[in-house]
Amino acid sequence: SSIVLGQGQRWSVAVVAPISEVEDTVKKISRRNFSIEAALVAGMFIFGLLIVIFQNHISRTLAVRVKLAEAEVHEKEQIYRRIVAQATDLIYILDLEMNVVLLNPIARKTFNQIYEFFYSNNTFVSFLKRKNKPDLVKRKFNELFGPFLKRYLKDQFETTIKRQKNHSFEHMVTLDHRKIHFSSRLIPIRDEKMNIFHILGMSRDETEKLEVDQKIYNTEKL
């Protein structure tokens, strides 16, 4: 600092603080800076810890939800399987080449009977083939019913593909010299892009109903 005297003269005066006071000030500043830094580090650590805890909580919550969803899907799948397995209607799935992909038990039993009945009367089929149960999966659906329905069922299948909607039709099959009347429906199955990739088929044996209707009709005529 300086002191102004008369006629523009200045004297320089040095002010010296005690060393202890300087050291104390430096220590206070250092402690304050250290406290601030420690607080920042602690805050960052606590914030990171909270994030980890929150993420773990979310992970556990998602894991529980996934397990519940999987259990629900599995339960529904089991219900659908039981419904299909115990259905009295013939249920089957075909690919776009008309090959059989899946059959429910009643469809497998009925189609096996029809297939065996047709080929047991075919002299070109060996005895060994007649004795073995045929595997109907991957066979052409229309070929299970013999040559008389082969073209007709193929036409119904192609109509479903062409129209891209449900298609119903009637057909008759001879089994053990008894005529069985089927009411069938083909339903397109679509993927997430709405493209048809399978055909769901359902056939119902209407023989008994038609016989009852015929008896009622005959009775009314009398």
Question: How does this model look, in words?
Answer:
The protein is of the alpha+beta class and 222 residues long. Helices cover 55% and strands 21% of the residues. It contains five helices and seven strands, in the order ββαββαααβββα. It has helices at 19-86, 105-120, 127-131, 147-163, 207-221, and strands at 2-4, 10-12, 90-94, 100-103, 167-175, 178-190, 196-205. It has a five-stranded antiparallel sheet with strand order 4-3-7-6-5. Mean pLDDT is 78; it is low at 1-5 and 123-130.
Secondary-structure class: alpha+beta
**What are the segments in which pLDDT stays under 50 over at least 5 consecutive residues?**
1-5, 123-130
Radius of gyration: 43 Å
Distance between the termini: 139 Å
Spell out the helices and strands N to C: EEHEEHHHEEEH
Shape: rod-shaped
**In this structure, how is the largest beta sheet organized?**
5 strands, antiparallel
Features:
single chain; 222 residues; alpha+beta; 5 helices; 7 strands
Please give a quick description of this structure.
The chain is an alpha+beta fold. Helices cover 55% and strands 21% of the residues. It has helices at residues 19-86, 105-120, 127-131, 147-163, 207-221; strands at 2-4, 10-12, 90-94, 100-103, 167-175, 178-190, 196-205.
Secondary structure layout:
Layout: E1 2-4, E2 10-12, H1 19-86, E3 90-94, E4 100-103, H2 105-120, H3 127-131, H4 147-163, E5 167-175, E6 178-190, E7 196-205, H5 207-221
Antiparallel strand pairs: 1-2, 3-4, 3-7, 5-6, 6-7
